[in-house]
Amino acid sequence: MTPPSSSPESIEAFKVVPIHKHRELMDQCIALINSEWPRSYTARLWSLESSKETLPTSFVLTADAKNGVAVLAHAKLSPIPADREAVFVESVVVARERRGQGIGRLLMREIENHCFQKLHLKKIYLSTIDQQAFYAKLGYKLCSAISIFGSRPATNTSTKKTWMFKNAPCSS
User: Fold this and answer.
1) DSSP-derived secondary structure for 12-54
2) May I have one GO cellular component term (predicted)?
3) 69-118, pLDDT tens digit by residue?
4) How far is CA 121 from CA 55, 82, 93, 154, in A?
5) Is the pLDDT assigned to residue 36 strictly greater than 60?
6) Distance between CA 80 and CA 99 in Å, rounded?
7) b/e string for 84-112 if b means 16 or more Cβ within 10 A?
8) How far apart are CA 14 and CA 44, in angstroms?
9) Which of 61, 102, 106, 109 counts the highest number of beta carbons within 10 A?
10) What is d(CA 67, CA 69) in angstroms, rounded to the nearest whole number?
11) What is the enclosing helix (H) or strand (E) of 151?
12) What secondary structure letter does DSSP report for 62?
């Protein structure tokens, strides 16, 4: 998979892979996430090590680099106990120097395919503080805050976040 490019020499081969199948990428992934939201190495490692085939799952978008594989983006999908047909995109981060190049769009497309086609989920939820326009371009719509914790549906009243969702495409 490759994003649109203006010149042949800028074409890169990107892969979106689950981190639990590529443990060698954990350190790079932790550095990337911590560049946006600093937290202890141990806490990040624990979170990434919880990734599995079902939920939660952490994905990384990689590209071949001169010195091996480079992690350019990360996203974590978490279950919503009160809604087994939905998933919460807990975090999405793209390396600062690679933003605006279609990498986030590519990562989200692969996540949506995974959720809707492989996991057969009906809805994807996410929250964002400053990327509403990006997600709206991908087809996400505004919604009320949801609780991603526990088994009872209860609203989250965070005033900084905008909550959004996308339904699975209708199959005909």
Assistant:
1) --EEEEEGGG-GGGHHHHHHHHHHHS---HHHHHHHHHT--SS
2) cytoplasm
3) 999 999 999 999 999 999 999 999 999 999 999 999 999 999 999 999 99
4) 11, 14, 23, 21
5) yes
6) 29
7) eebbbbbbbbbbeebeebbbbebbbebbb
8) 24
9) 61
10) 7
11) none
12) E
Calpha distance 82→84 (Å, rounded):
6
Place of tokens 């010149």: 7
Nearest C-alpha neighbor of 20 from the set 94, 77, 65: 77
- pTM value > 0.70: yes
> 151 φ, ψ to 5°?
-105, -10
Write out the E strands in 115-168: 123-128, 141-143, 162-167
For 135, phi then psi, to 5°, come to -70, -35
Checking if the pLDDT of 17 tops 50, the result is yes
| Rounded Cα distance, 130 and 103, in Å | 17
Of the candidates 74, 56, 164, the one whose C-alpha atom is nearest the C-alpha of residue 110 is 74
User: Which residue in this structure is represented by tokens 């709206």?
Assistant: 136
The token duo for 115 is 């959720």
